[in-house]
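[step 3/7] fold_predict: job queued, chain A
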Amino acid sequence: MNKYRLIYITLILFGIVLNIGCTQSEVPKVDKAGIEASGLEWSEDFEASLSLAKEKDLPILINFTGSDWCGWCFKLHDEVFAQPEFIEYAEKNFVLFKADFPKSVPQPDELKAQNQMLMKKYGVRGFPTIMLVSHDGTTLAQTGYQQGGPTKYIEHLEELLKK
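[step 4/7] structure written:
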């Protein structure tokens, strides 16, 4: 019995160490206005994003993210969202909205409630999830992290919008 308990405790400790190692990535810096260091402005007000999308006749790119803990979110940010090619493309082709689910960054209760409602509405089950929606909130497409950098990601988004 003691042998199994030792194995169990060892596995638990190994899992904790592995988890800590996987979550200690560099976190993109976000200032109080919600502008990421990449230069892209991500709104956190969904109703305002819907209005702006209607006014500009553009789809909304929703980034469901765990900005301070999600390794794949960090990769998507660093490899795509922070790249000049994507920044230029996104500013002309989308209204950008971020639904953030941080673990250690405090958020107002209304922002948490809005993001939870959107997560449920769009059936988001993991991070990062990227939704393309129309100005009335209708789903156009869903994707996530894609390997290949900004050029491939732009091509991928264009294909999704054609469908």
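[step 5/7] annotate
The CA atoms of residues 17 and 46 lie 37 Å apart.
The helical segments are 2-23, 46-56, 71-81, 84-93, 109-121, 149-162.
exit 0
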